[in-house]
What does this fold into?
Amino acid sequence: STGLKSVDELFTIKTGLYVLSGHPSEGKSAFVDWLVYSLAKDYGIKTCYCSFENSPSLHSIKLSQIITSKKFWGDNRMTQEEKDYAESLISEHILFQDFQSEGATIDDILERFEQSIMRQGTRICVIDPYNFIRTDNIKGKLMTDVVSDLLSKVQNFCRKNDVTCLFIVHPSKPKMDNRKTIVGLDISGSYAWFAKSDVGITIAREDGNGVGVHVWKARHGIYGHKMGATSLTFDPDTGRYSEYSPIEDNFDWEF
It folds into this structure.
């Protein structure tokens, strides 16, 4: 279970490749962080992140806000005891790959994932986002073939090691004046994002405090009961998601 009934009606978590996309700054990473927390809290599942846009320290702060349901700074911030509890949970359930000062190929990333699986029992692997991955030795290859080969490696890795990979990727040339919901065929680089994903998800900001979770692929009907969408409520102060409860459209969005 993802931890929310309305999301479970669309998809649940199984071994395989989950591709998440959406317009910039609309909550892809925030949704994954909440999902990782939910799986750790409910099942004790461990996650290894390859998050190019967050340092481990900053990422820990974001996760601690989800865990405590309080801000790290400012008013109503977490107490020292709450911070210590969050730090303990993160230390037990979360590992970070740190490629802040260097590039990484998909082989580098998967090698570290495999180490975390053997040493810590990792079951969830997160890559965020695709466009930071270094693609070496691609001379003479079409980008669509490069992406297809990369996704085949990730897909085979998931099945070999019985893990779930949450892979965040940006759409191609998003038009912010056109609020069309992103689907698999809109993702940059290759049709393979649609063809090789087991589950395809788009996160899209809605009016007020709403966030839409759109599922555009669920392979064989095993990974999800139906294609469709649901709305969730997002709290930007803590990064928490809950079943949808609308408020007026004066929300301060931060991801």
